[in-house]
Amino acid sequence: MTSQAVAQRPLDGVQGLVFFGFPLHPPKRPSTKRADHLAKVTVPMLFLQGTRDDLADLDLLRPVCAKLGRLATLSVVEAADHSFHVLKRSGTSDTAVLRQLVQTVASWAEKIRG
Hints:
Number of helices: 3
CATH architecture: 3-Layer(aba) Sandwich
Distance between the termini: 26 Å
Strand content: 5-15%
Number of domains: 1
Structural class: alpha/beta
Shape: globular
């Protein structure tokens, strides 16, 4: 919802948007319509997405991010679902994934602050 507000007009103090699992489409109904408003966002955006996210087919999200150009950064989390839960057989843990997310966001925030 914040991205929709920022697409309408800049919000004071908002220097960037972080999406923890952007809900690109309903489960099993691939579409990019929910991303249409992002073209009007003028601040940097970080998309954190799991490879098992039922709400964002990466084959659809990658071109959306590419179209947004330098304003969009996509960070893919292997074996994570929409909640960033990973299966035990993935060889990692939910805690490790959360650490990875924190590090990614912190690094990205430093870059956009200059």
